[in-house]
Amino acid sequence: MVFWVSASLEVEAPDVGRTTSFWSAVTGSPLPAHLVVQPASGRPGVRVHPHDDAVPAVPAPASFPGVRRSRVYQVCVDIPGPAFEAEAQWWASMAGGRLDVLERRPEFAWVRMPGGPRPLDLLLQRLDRLDGPVAAHLDLGTTDREAETARHRALGASLVAQEEFWTVLTDPAGLAYCITDRDPVTGKLG
Predict the structure, then answer these.
(1) What mean pLDDT is predicted for residues 155-163?
(2) What is the 3-state secondary structure (H, E, C) of the chain?
């Protein structure tokens, strides 16, 4: 079995054009097939879609003035604490992969999928909250987080918080996402 994930950014219908324009500017090109914007059929948010067919090519990082490289490289599934173990095992089983817990931050675990690289890595995050829905958000890797954050804010993103290895923003439709210090090619923390 070949396993990979795509993500859809589901927003209110009037926000589809603006959100597509924003994310096209963020990626530096038309959106790839594994990352789409569409009208929400329910509550707006990021949805993760599993696939078991041919894996699309991994897009090359884009280069921008003041930012050497940047790429949407993963989707993070945000899981309430009590549901984390079952949800994490479900994703690992679905992917035919294994969980790789980040030693320094054990609230994070990657689903390591067998085979070559994927357009989007899959990260799971154990939330502090005890209940509520499972949600998701996109993560971008960049070689210059400060410059990339400034570029996103100029495109219309709003700053939410700055953490040790990432910055949380919201896009113009209000969807949260993170810009991380991970190299968009190697995935290594910069």
Answers:
(1) 97
(2) CCCEEEEEEEECHHHHHHHHHHHHHHHCCCCCCCEEEEECCCCCEEEEEEECCCCCCCCCCEEECCEEEEEEEEEEEEEEHHHHHHHHHHHHHHHCCEEEECCCCCCEEEEECCCCCCCCEEEEEEECCCCCCCEEEEEEEECCHHHHHHHHHHHCCEEEEECCCEEEEECCCCCEEEEECECCCCCCEC
Please tell me the chain's helix, strand, coil percentages from 3-state DSSP, rounded to the nearest 5.
20, 40, 35
All structural domains of the chain, each given as residue ranges with its CATH number in brackets, are 58-180 (3.10.180.10)
| H-run or E-run covering 122 | strand 121-127
pLDDT (mean) for 19-24: 98
Q: For residue range 54-84, what is the model confidence (pLDDT) as tens digits?
A: 999 999 999 988 778 999 999 999 999 999 9
pTM, to two decimals: 0.94
